[in-house]
Specification:
The chain is α+β, with helices and mostly antiparallel strands and 348 residues long. The chain is 61% helix and 9% strand. Strands 1-2-3-5-4 form a 5-stranded mixed β-sheet.
Length: 348
């Protein structure tokens, strides 16, 4: 629209323009779309057309674009002053212009209007744009604050639930440990005594793990040998400990929980089965494999409310960008494979 108006203005005043001014006016009208990118250059090109006294639109559009840009206000004031001076002086009629008071007054009013109006509108547009940007930044800041407050509230609720679970579970685990101690002392059979002592030791380990979880002291790869040893006979482990140093703590904790849940499922669904646990580190990933054969003794009855272990592990693995797959083995056993990505070391 600005280009069309500038071209129409040049065509309408063609008869009052010298021969070389008309092509120049059309050229300036054609480059007006670049006024926002090059406001200074377009401003300098438009000033000569303003000196004709009949071509106003290019200079007004260029001054408005300059005021809208990120230029300093002194530069905008200088451009507005240049527009006022160029539009006030009758360059083509300096010898015959009647410098009377009414003519001077009208010239000052017209040149002031031509200079102030586009500059003021441009500065107003810039202020509105800056205000909109600050409002958007403020809204984003408030959104971050609300999100942070919600996360803190959720964290406090989780901590409260964790303390409640710890208090309740620790109480019952202590009772189980005491009962197992009493049973071990009163048992006549050595086998029963060993089983009672093992149950007591498991309850104490469970209480210790619960305390570590509450204190965010999560076990990692260094605790895998103890976990495998506690699983009993029939479990073989290939942990390649020398290659596991330097893994991030969240990767180590997830690997520990994967092996722990897999061994728990073996004891629950395939008691006595031979189980192989392997944890190996590749250049960019950590591979966990747990495979077991068919059960050697009948398994216990399934407990109600179970079935959430593997979905939880899949969600935990996916949160780290890894994968976890499970499938029955041809020999009647079960296989679990997990891949956890490792951060790539920064190259120099």
């Amino acid at each position: 629209m600005v280009v069309a108006a500038a071209v129409a203005e040049a065509l309408a005043t063609r008869s009052a323009l010298p021969g070389w001014i008309f092509p120049a006016a059309l050229t300036v009208a054609g480059v007006l779309p670049m006024r926002r990118r090059f406001p200074r250059t377009i401003m300098l090109l438009a000033l000569p057309t303003l000196a004709t006294g009949v071509l106003w639109i290019p200079a007004l559009a260029a001054l408005h674009a300059l005021a809208m840009s990120e230029r300093r206000r002194r530069e905008v004031a200088a451009a507005a002053a240049a527009v006022a001076v160029v539009s006030f002086v009758p360059w083509r009629y300096l010898d015959s212009y009647p410098w009377s008071m009414p003519d001077i007054t009208l010239g000052l009013l017209l040149s002031g209007l031509l200079a102030v109006a586009p500059a003021a509108l441009g500065l107003l547009g810039r202020a509105r744009r800056e205000l909109a940007a600050r409002l958007a930044e403020l809204a984003l800041s408030r959104e971050r604050e609300h999100r942070y407050a919600a996360e803190q509230a959720a964290l406090r609720e989780r901590e409260r639930l964790a303390r409640d679970v710890h208090d309740t579970a620790a109480h019952h685990l202590s009772l189980i440990s005491l009962r197992c101690t009493v049973l071990a002392a009163a048992a006549d059979s050595p086998g029963f005594r060993v089983e009672a002592e093992a149950l007591g030791e498991l309850s104490r380990h469970a209480a210790a793990d619960l305390r570590q979880a509450i204190r965010h002291e999560n076990p990692g790869l260094a605790q895998l040998p103890e976990l495998v040893a506690a699983a009993g006979e029939g479990v073989r482990a290939d942990l390649a400990r020398a290659d596991l140093a330097g893994c991030p703590p969240e990767i180590q904790h997830t690997a520990y929980r994967i092996v722990q849940e897999a061994l728990t499922n073996v004891r629950r669904h395939a008691p006595g089965a031979r189980t192989d646990v392997a944890v190996r580190r590749a250049p960019d990933s950590l591979h966990i494999t747990v495979r077991n054969g068919p059960p050697s003794v009948p398994g216990p009855r399934s407990e109600p409310g179970g079935g959430q272990g593997l979905p939880g592990l899949r969600a935990r693995t996916a949160a780290l960008g890894g994968t976890l797959t499970t499938a029955p083995a041809p020999d009647g056993g079960f296989a679990l494979d997990a891949v956890l990505p490792l951060p790539v070391p920064a190259s120099w």
